[in-house]
Amino acid sequence: MLRRPKPTDSESDLLREQEQFLTSGAPSAANVVRRPDKRRGQAGAGDGEQDGEDDGEQRDVVTIEDLPDQLPSLTPAPPKKSRFKASRVTFEAEDAEETLDRHDTHISAVLSRIVEKDTTSTPISLPALTGVAFPKVMHRSETNSQVQMSSVGGKKSIFALHIAAQRIKEGKTPLHCGPEAAQIPGHREQNLPPETSMDTDQSEATNHRPNPISGLRLVSGQGLQGLEGSAETMRIHRENQAKLQAMSQDEILQEQRKLLSQLDPRLVEFVRSHKAQSLPSSASPSKQPQGKCSEGNFPLDNVSRESDSSRAAVLSQNPQEVEMEREEEEEEEDMPPPPPLLVVTEKDLPVKPRKEWLHMNKLEPEKLEWMRDLPAPRKKGTKKAMQARFDFAGTLIPPSEDLPTHLGLHHHGEEPERAGYSLQELFLLSRSQLNQQRSLALGTLAHILSKARAGGYVSVLTGSMMSTLLDAGLIFLLRFALDDGVEGVMSAAVHALKALLVCAEDEECLDCTFSWFSGLASFPMLPSAQEEEDEEDEGLPETMKETAKEKEERKSDHYVARQDVVKGLLKMKLLPRLRYILEVVRPSPRVVQDVLDILTRIARHSSSSAAQVLDCPRLMETVMSEFLSTSWTAPSSPLPPSVYGLPLASAMKLIRVLATSGRHACARLLNSLGVRERLSCLLSAEPSELLLEPAEALRITTEAFRLWAVASAYGQAGKLYIDLYPSLAKALQSVHKVLGASHPLWPLQLQRVLALLSLLTQVTHTAGCHQELQAGLVSSQGQECPPPPPVSWGHVTGLQASLVGHLKAFVKNLDDLVQKESSLAVIPAYLTYLQAYYHQLSRQSCFKPVETLQELELLTSEVLFPLLSHHVVQGLMKNLKSSSVVCNVQSCHPGPETTLSLPGLSCPGWRDRPGMVVPSSPFPLLTGLGLLLETITGIHKGLSCKFKGLLLSEPVIGYLRSCSQATPTLSHTRAWMLRHEHHLLYLLLQLAHRLVPVEPEVAKHASLYHQVALVLLPWLLPGSEFLAHELLSTIIFSRDFLSEGHSGGPEAIELGELRLQEETHHHTSPSLQTVGALLREACVQLPSIRGCFLTHLAHLEPSVLTSRDTLLGRNPWIRSLFLPELTGPTMPSDWHFLPLISLYERAGASDGGGLAVEELPHGALQAVSHCLQWLLLLEVWREEALKVIPPVAKLARLSCVFLCSSDMFLERPVQKMTWGLFRLFTRKSRLDSLDLNIPPPGLASFQDLYISVLTQYEAVSFGDRLFGCWVLLPLQRKYSTTMRLAVFGEHVGILRSLGVTLEQLSIPIERFTSPPEDSLPLLHLYFRSLVTGSLKPRWCPVLYVVALSHVNSFIFSQDAAAQKVEAARHSMLRKIYYLADEVLKNHLLLFRLPQRHSELGFDTYDQLPPIRAKRLESVLRLQDHKGD
Known about the structure:
Elements: H1 11-24, H2 96-102, H3 107-111, H4 140-146, H5 158-169, H6 179-183, H7 194-199, H8 202-207, H9 228-246, H10 249-262, H11 265-278, H12 306-315, H13 319-331, H14 365-368, H15 423-429, H16 435-453, H17 465-471, H18 474-482, H19 487-501, H20 504-512, H21 548-554, H22 557-563, H23 565-571, H24 574-585, H25 589-605, H26 607-615, H27 619-627, H28 649-660, H29 663-671, H30 675-683, H31 694-713, H32 718-723, H33 725-733, H34 746-768, H35 770-779, H36 799-812, H37 820-841, H38 849-869, H39 871-877, H40 880-883, H41 923-939, H42 948-952, H43 954-964, H44 972-995, H45 1000-1003, H46 1006-1016, H47 1025-1036, H48 1049-1064, H49 1075-1084, H50 1086-1096, H51 1101-1111, H52 1138-1146, H53 1164-1181, H54 1191-1198, H55 1200-1203, H56 1212-1225, H57 1228-1233, H58 1246-1260, H59 1265-1272, H60 1281-1288, H61 1310-1313, H62 1320-1332, H63 1341-1355, H64 1363-1377, H65 1382-1390, E1 1391-1394, E2 1402-1404, H66 1410-1427
Antiparallel strand pairs: 1-2
Helix pairs in contact: 4-5, 15-16, 16-19, 18-19, 19-25, 22-23, 25-26, 25-28, 28-29, 28-31, 31-34, 34-37, 36-37, 36-38, 37-41, 41-44, 43-46, 44-46, 44-47, 47-51, 48-49, 49-53, 50-53, 52-53, 53-56, 58-60, 60-62, 62-63, 63-65
């Protein structure tokens, strides 16, 4: 069904609709007729064959050779057909151009046929002299005497009065009859209007009978000669009227229906339109009420007949338009019919017109239609989604909701009956010339963006609102609006931009986790990196290739913004504009807050974006001088009209985020921009003394502590600690005065305490490195070494006792319902501080082991045991699974909308659902506790056993089991939370590492801990490389966690293998060792296996060292608190195959077979052996840990054993391990799950890899049975035919050396022979290889049986098939019958079933079964008949 173009359609939409119209073959609604140009002569007329009137006339005719008669069509279109051509009478010899000239009415055709009149016999008389002027002068008196004013419809022009008088003089009805004329029966309309005459009801028919005195409508008398034409016309008219008068109304309606059924509908429409055009709506007085118009009424005719006037207006359109509308109505039959046009009368007008108003004497209903009450909104009768409309608050308005008009949501756009504005209309209004409309549109877009970021439209709208807006060019719209000279519009644009970029709840979550372990670090909010193909630089030398900076500058703003919203805004010079707004415009407090939030989000984007914020001229100077001034006066009201000159917490937060981007940026802020002085000014006094509102004072001091903590994390601002030590001690003394949870300032007070503890933790780490740096400075001998910080260990030792006392008090407060929530919030920060203190204490020269051990025992008995055994903590631990991100991937909240170009944390609504950040989450407490336990058990080994209850508790065991079976997905929305959960899992595993060797109860769950370690390793994110290294070094390859290796595991495997052999009665490779012996040997080699993998992961050493500095608190060596870009996990999921893949990449097979290098790297054989041993251990005892790797990927990775070398697979250790793995992969459950039709990760398809395996087998296999089994595995019937075609087609030579027997192949032969082959090309190849001798049972027993089975099934198949297939069956059967090789002939004809233990590998019939014999006889008889 074709639709009409809409105003919103783009050029591509119009072209697509044109293509659909042309291919549909529908007739066009309008035809273009080109009249011939008479100046070009009469083409087609012969010499001297012109009309008599044109004899002797010579015309210049210009002709161009090879010029087509018609212009070529740009798109293939069906030939146009005239709908009137079939009804015309034409002659074969008739010239088309001559006919065109004969009917031409152009002025040139008239002037070219002027014939001078013969006046020779006409008498000539002179004009008589008269006193009348020529032309005659018209006088008003004559006009008024000829026609009355009332008879022509009121006040008319002189010309109109004169014309009306002439028509009356000639006996005709005036064109405009007034109300008085309507009273005369002779002036009543006799022929009904189109709709009235065709569709009128009975009452109208009786009230309006035809009158014979009425004028003619259709019969004009044109063409009749002489004066009798008019008389004849009138006679016909009277005859018609007499017949109508004699008929009843039913007879008239019956004749109407009869005529309508016989006439062409187009003719009927033409008659109606002709009548409507001849009778304007204002000229029909038939329904005007009798009586003269009063002075206050309109002197109009037909006022109440709005339907007639609207109908006349419709019919007065071009016929093409009417036809197009009719076709559109036919195409949209499924849509509900439009409401009928209502009658508009004078009494319906809200304001009564007056006589003295100009141009108000005519009622125009079509123009007044918009003043009528809107119809109730209704849902369209269509299955298509309806356009979304929003109110000014961004709320989606349901299509069926009827809102009052005083809300201002109705307008004159599309669907005026529906309230609200669509996105298209808002975009249009945002570029309006009216300031109010621009501000209103931008404000509405800001509300829509806020709700979209919060996920408010996920369940009610199809598609992503954020993606739709960004694709529509929202970024450019907001950027243009920022340049608006009107402050209100500019402010609305800033607010909309803030709604697009900033999510307040994301920032709240990041602030809540700031005091957690490694909470200062965060991932840059960069979109996922997309690889770009540099086709232009291919083949160019390195010196001529463009640099990354040049490529970035060459990209357009639109391309950059589509990939990365923040980078696109920076490219569009957003920062200078924001600086101008802050410095010059000096907007309201709300706009200032929005600008600072936008700058904070830009600083979180990446280190380069933060550097651009710092480098923007006068931007940071403006922020520091206007919003972080060192002196200010107290604001006069809680909401001051201007925040200039007042310190703002959002400005301090911007400084803190900028400092997070790197140590150099932090040093620049502290020293060059005067941040150090601001910190001293804000933190040297109590919040109540800062001349600020209490809430704002708490916020800005909290941000000041956080900024100081960030600086301390780089080893900076140490002198500030010494200077402000009294203020810090005073702040610590007031920690116990934290307000109750019911106080409105309690959350702010709590965040300030946590920020203070984070500062002390980082200062402790920095002070702990002073001694090491001092020693390094002495021994560096001129080499680069960080300078020692001003703060030393002696400056921080005095705080520990005070903080331990606070911790004891908070643990006791857990029993107090009022103080419980506050205590649970601050205890994790105290535990983190104590971990930092004892970790750094053990590295100091003043460390006293005996005193420290006693101190740790006292801390354990007085603090840690009561804390861990408290019922509140036990209740929190039960929420482990419900709060976990890893365990709740599927049931996770759908979350808000995020786009790839603008990543976020998806935190909106985090307080209303379970999670890691909510108060009921045990993660911060258990992470702090695990961190402290790792440190103190490292110092005091005997304390480990006292905490076994933590690992053996039911919540922890259940949580670890859920984690071992989980498959979390990685994204920006989960990465920041997954990172903290990975920390807890790592700490629990480290505690298990200490307890498993010494605690039998904990050792019972060793396999569970090992399973969790194996699944955790490929989950670890960038920045956690040190944790991965520790897991590899301790747990992953530890024999203590592979309990099966020393508790009868290998023996159990051997027994199971023997039982399997007894059941199947076949022995695979009896000369090789069993899997149980291989497992026993692999367990012995675990230390060597660990060394092998650590060697192949040596390229991660720089990342491991960087991660170690961050996680262990080596602050002076930390370069940035921005974690590496989130491109994926630290370790690949298939890291178990790393030695094999690495060897293949270094010395892989070339295209022609053989090695690409001459010699393997040193130790390659040992690395491959260790890798295969490790894979064997995992496949037998830790299969769940490998479930993330698809079976096809395992097979592809193991194929590197054969591809990485020409003889590696022949080495006995490799042979043993590969045989063992092959047996595991060919068990029934494994074979059922193996799908080679899906591409392995990292490869385009498995078929491509298989071609390389075939090439390598032909080149270097030497008929090796293991390699042969590997080649046969993908040839099973359920896999792609492509691989079997490759073997029997391009690589048919391998059939001579593929000597694997059915006994040696551990795959059932039925998987190769069932179901029967249906590929005709492959069957031809099977048959050809058998007949030509390429495939023989002594060379390739397995495929010989396979080929025999499929060919035999094919030739004797009774299934109906296509003629081509049936002909192939007959041909093969005849050729087999006439084979000279009797053995092969008998095999093909008498084949029965594959049989593994048979000498041939299959069973045969003693003689041909009757049904097969009958089939063979029928085929041979058919051939004989054809031969005859």
